[in-house]
Design brief:
The protein is of the alpha+beta class. 36% of the residues lie in helices and 18% in strands. The protein has a 7-stranded mixed β-sheet with strand order 8-7-16-17-18-15-19, with helices on both faces. Strand 11 (315-320) and strand 12 form a beta hairpin. It binds flavin-adenine dinucleotide. Flavin-adenine dinucleotide binds at residues 68-74, 91-94, 99-101, 114-118, 314-315, 348-349, 353, 382, 384, 458, 523-524, 530-531, 561-562, 567-569, 585.
């Protein structure tokens, strides 16, 4: 039996490798493009790059591709194409580029929307090399403190604080100090997380391999046999941790990071969870100068190749010819439609926006499109509170770390009661909260904003709670809406001031909340989703992953971004597999594949990419366009 399975696997592997490596084409990573690091510019200077408004006259001629949406998925693929000389136009509906990586400023305080910490960014690691290449070495990363996360559980009179340290051995060792007698459970948890994390290669393979091979792997049940990731994917996080320990606080500490992908433990796949746990094992980082630096350093690369990134450019439909091949997009400029032609359309706008809003009705009804939609569902709505404070990080007791604060250790029950509860009551009772200070993480914040600080608070909220106000003007919604927001803000601030006693009401110079309908407006999330499509157990079925891929059922139309692969700036590619390469949203359309370690261009041409840099092969989902990347 095992010999047969082995032979089948070997044949499959040979076919996949042949399919992938027989394509020739230019390579976006052929050259180490890092340049000496330049000084971080002021907001005004950066806005000249990030806020270039759409005008038909600014659309470059003879485009090679048009990308809908300027999140990391959209900009990432645009940079890759630009690096092989393609002229790409990125169109963003908001008034600035970046998607979840954009920032905004109110009363002098700059706030990040959606980047708080990223793992796997050690200098020699492939994911770091990849981000360096995508930003020509201009994006710099600042490590967070260690412990980088704190799990805070319980009411004020019985509050327990558990530090989470990075470090492959330190992470479990420190947990063992907090939970004596639970050594076996902790070791087993770490072992399972690492093993499941490593198995993610097959998920990428399903999205990359020829459809027939992917389907063969799915329908023969081989996925579960070949990868522990898929073996564990339909087991819930609650089920797994409950099987490891009876200690309720330890169960809560094992599961606390579910907020980074948005499913309560009983609905979360253990495999998804394992990716996040292992993602931060080697530390956590924050972009120096704030999240806005990410898009800011990618756009010039697109422009250098003749492309452009234009904002206030809502795409209202994708254009098709009579053979149902995508031939461009239409952008609303006031009441007028501007048509833009391109031989390739890549959508970073999310699967629901793309299929339900941008396709003509007849194509939307295609069985293959309906099949994809039926496999996905909208993710949980996000709620963010942005606080501008008078006081330095020292005065306010803020550090370069994150707090995950929970009312108690029974997350599943807390979440159920909150999301199914009466919204006014739930507003006063937000049971889980992420707290971070972007200003404390950014080493240049204080020199630019002396004596001021910011705090970002993130939780979840039901879209339906706010839906009645969705059509009102974003800056002028009704008093009832503002009152509901105020209730959330007040409840949340009470918790924060209790945990951070140096933060008091009189220090708050600015506070406002973004609800799910705010997300709809600014990041185009149709149901206010915090992380795009739902990342629950169903998302990890082999069938779904073989079906939802960069290629769509429509010729010349591709998907990129968090709905194709997974949410997060990077999605981890685990060690110690030979492919220690993180894929990211940007890689959704160009997926990394294993290749034996050997010296490569990057480490030959540069001193800081040392011999630990892995030989990796990137294979573009766009292989039919003859582009292949090898690092
Ligand atoms: C509050 C929050 C905190 C987060 N924290 C972290 C973190 O700490 N670490 C981490 O790694 N990840 C984090 N994430 C997740 C990460 O930011 C996202 O997964 C990732 O940035 C998504 O990138 P994307 O390109 O897929 O989509 P997006 O960034 O959502 O980009 C999609 C873009 O498409 C645009 N668009 C939509 N429709 C149209 C249209 N019709 N025409 C033109 N443009 C359109 C939208 O406006 C948007 O700009 C966080 C997310 C949030 C919301």
């Amino acid at each position: 039996m095992w010999i047969t399975v082995g032979i089948i696997c070997a044949v499959l592997l040979a076919l996949v490798l042949k399919y992938i490596f027989t394509t020739s084409g230019p390579n976006p990573f052929a050259r180490d493009t890092r340049e000496p690091v330049r000084e971080i510019l002021t907001k005004k200077e950066k806005n000249k790059v990030l806020k270039q408004g759409f005008l038909a006259s600014k659309v470059p001629e003879n485009l090679d591709a048009v990308v809908i949406g300027s999140g990391i998925g959209g900009l990432g693929i645009a940079v890759l194409l630009a690096k092989v000389g393609k002229k790409v136009l990125v169109l963003e509906q908001h008034d600035r580029a970046g998607g979840c990586c954009h920032t905004f400023t109110e009363k002098g305080f700059e706030f990040d929307v959606g980047i708080h910490y990223i793992g796997d960014l050690q200098e020699h690691k492939p994911f770091r090399c990849m981000l360096d290449q995508l930003t020509n070495g201009q994006l710099q990363w600042e490590p967070l403190d260690n412990p980088y996360d704190w799990v805070v559980i319980g009411p004020p009179e019985n509050r327990r604080r558990y530090p989470i340290y990075s470090g492959r051995t330190r992470f479990p060792e420190e947990l063992k100090k907090c939970f004596p007698g639970e050594e076996k459970a902790i070791d087993e948890y770490v072992r399972m997380c690492k093993k499941a994390g490593r198995g993610i290669w097959l998920l990428a393979m399903l999205k990359l391999a020829p459809t027939l091979i992917a389907k063969f792997l799915v329908y023969t049940g081989l996925c579960k046999r070949l990868s522990y990731f898929f073996e564990m994917a339909d087991r819930s996080l609650t089920e797994v941790v409950n099987g490891l320990t009876e200690n309720k606080d330890l169960r809560a500490v094992f599961t606390y990071i579910f907020g980074t992908y948005g499913n309560m433990p009983k609905d979360a796949s253990f495999s998804m969870h394992s990716l996040l746990v292992t993602h931060y094992l080697n530390g956590a980082w924050y972009p120096k100068g704030g999240a806005t630096e990410i898009a800011f350093h990618m756009i010039p690369i697109i422009e250098k190749a003749g492309g452009a990134v234009l904002v206030r450019a809502p795409v209202n439909r994708i254009l098709f010819n009579s053979n149902n091949e995508a031939i461009g997009v239409s952008v609303m400029k006031g009441q007028e439609e501007v048509h833009i032609n391109a031989p390739m359309v890549i959508s970073d706008a999310g699967i629901f926006n793309t299929y339900q809003q941008l396709l003509p009705k007849n194509l939307q009804a295609m069985p293959a499109i309906q099949k994809q939609l039926s496999l996905m569902k909208n993710g949980e709505g996000g709620l963010s509170v942005f606080v501008g404070l008078d006081g330095s990080k020292e005065e306010l007791g803020l550090k370069a770390d994150n707090y995950w604060i929970f009312k108690e250790n029974n997350y599943d029950e807390l979440w159920e009661a909150y999301t199914n509860g009466d919204r006014e009551e739930s507003a006063k009772n937000v049971p889980m909260l992420f707290v971070a200070s972007p200003s404390a993480k950014d080493p240049i914040w204080q020199e630019r904003n002396p004596g001021k600080s910011t705090v970002s608070l993130v939780s979840f909220a039901s879209y339906e709670w706010f839906e009645e106000w969705k059509d009102a003007k974003v800056t002028n919604r009704s008093p009832e809406y503002k009152e509901l927001k105020r209730a959330f803000i007040d409840g949340i601030l009470d918790v924060v001031m209790d945990v951070f006693p140096n933060i008091t009401r009189d220090k708050i110079e600015y506070v406002d909340a973004g609800t799910p309908i705010t997300n709809t407006h600014y990041i185009g999330a149709p149901k206010g989703e915090i992380y795009g499509a739902d990342h629950g157990i169903a998302r990890f079925s082999p069938e779904l992953n073989a079906t939802i891929r960069p290629q769509t059922p429509l010729k010349n139309l591709y998907l990129t971004g968090q709905d194709v692969f997974l949410c997060g700036l990077p999605e981890r590619w685990p060690e110690p597999s030979p492919v220690a390469l993180s894929s990211s949203n940007a890689t959704c359309i160009w997926t990394p594949l294993p290749w034996p370690r050997k010296p490569n261009l990057l480490n030959r041409s540069s001193s800081s990419y040392n011999s630990k840099t892995y030989m990796c092969r990137f294979v573009l989902g766009l292989r039919e366009n003859g582009i292949r990347a090898t690092v």
